[in-house]
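Data deposition worksheet. Section B asks for the primary sequence of the deposited chain exactly as it was used as input, without tags or linkers unless they were present during the calculation. Section C holds the resulting structure in token form. Section D is free text for depositor observations; keep each observation to a single sentence. Incomplete worksheets are returned to the depositor.
Section A, Depositor: J.P.
Section B:
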Amino acid sequence: MTERARIDFPSRIGVWWASDTWAMPEAQAVARDIEAMGYGSLFLPETVGKECLTESAGFLSATERLVVGTGIANIHVRIPSAAEAGARTLTAMYPGRFVLGLGVSHAPLVEHGMGGSYQKPLATMRSYLEKMAAVSDAIEPGVSAPKLLAALGPKMIELSGTLADGAHPYLVLPSATAATREILGPDKWIVSEQAVVVGGDDAEQLRRAHDHLNVYSGLPNYRNSWLRQGFDETDLVRGGSERLARALVGMGSVDSAAAAVQAHLDAGADHVVVQILAETPVSDPRPGLRELAVALGL
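Section C:
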């Protein structure tokens, strides 16, 4: 049996939150509250806002046991050696508490937002991981940061099991989490994301779900993922069809939202990070997280 990379999650449910518009001291206060509520992690994205390794250091320093993960660190933002050295440094400072999630991002963001080149995502990721592995052992000797890949398709999932420590599925059904587990086997980490809406009537909840899916529904990586999961072209309208929104976002009562999270654990996820779809993308997630924590028994 392969020895699993060390991640010391205090509980099996964490949080996925984009804090780019929050001043860092205020964001650190949110992280402390997330830890106090009983959540086991805080995963954060990297798009066009804050630099995620620096931000991770801020959250790690502000908390005591919370695992902090990148969901995901964009491989087009930094060279492989910098990603590896940075991840090893955080792991050395906070053993068992940092997870480096890596992703190839999306062509529109890389080519138009960053002026880069987006070619052959699988080969690009493979080469990136190989270069990370070649970084000198003199950099934080004996330290290895656990790495998860933003893996949606079967080939990227396979790569997450051979050259990384597991996968970080995003915007997927529990059935996709189960398929990821089948590919990876029992010894690799799966940290699945689940978006939920807490509070509001049905129309308001559906509005928040469609707003959340609006950008993603225009990205080929997610559109292809949803087609593989059994949806069809009629579901891929901007913002997603009602069927897509209700399937991907946990809504209804707070207990229904909690059940959507539990479904990924039942399907084989080791850990699930919940994303609260609040009134706006920059709203405080803590009210919804508090309600959900009670329903989850944290």
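Section D:
The mean pLDDT is 95.
The two ends are 31 Å apart (CA to CA).
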